[in-house]
Amino acid sequence: MAIVQSARPRAEDPRFQRSLKALVDAVSELLDREPLQDLSITRIVEAAGVTRPTFYQHFADLPDAARRAGLARLADAFPIPQPAAALAGMATAEMRGQIERHTLPVLTHLRAHRDFYVRVLEGGGNVAFFEEIVAFVAQRMLPEAFEIAARKGLAARDDLMAVLAGGIMWLVIRWLRGEIDGDPEAMTRRISGVATTMIKSGS
């Protein structure tokens, strides 16, 4: 006798979206207060007001839920920006200023929620998550930089993203963990200097 399985809810289903938001909010609120290893799926679903099977409709496990919560908080805080003034042809000081205007709000947000992001990284970080964070850096903190460098023939855009955004994100992670000193303004100047040097190297 064949077992009839209920269809998985579709992502565009409003109920699916509501339960996802409830779970992400619950994970975020709990991670604001304590590390991932102290949490349980039972506590999360109770806080979200959903069932355990609903949790598994959205996430593979607790680390997956933590990663999704981290990315959701970043995305909520920083939508993809509108096209900025072209960096190509700018003087070095002007270019640095442009990059700093995009970077400082991100670093200020990360510092304000430092414990949360460190807990996500330490409890849920993996290669796929790091790649998603690199893509975030490229879209929010360094608009146009990769396109400009690629047009100059320095390297393929994806390679540039992997090297520059990946390196910058590693600096930011070390900074959040307290391995690098400095306030958001100091770290912003450091990042803008790296990015400007890369872009100008092809001029």
Automatic annotation (TrEMBL):
Pfam families: TetR_C_8, TetR_N
All copies of domain HTH tetR-type, residue ranges: 17-77
Transmembrane domains' residue ranges: none
DNA-binding region listed in the record: 40-59
Highest taxon listed in the record's lineage: Bacteria
InterPro entries: Homeodomain-like_sf (IPR009057), HTH_TetR (IPR001647), TetR_C_Firmicutes (IPR039532)
Keywords: DNA-binding
GO function terms (MF aspect): DNA binding
Protein's UniProt name: Transcriptional regulator, TetR family
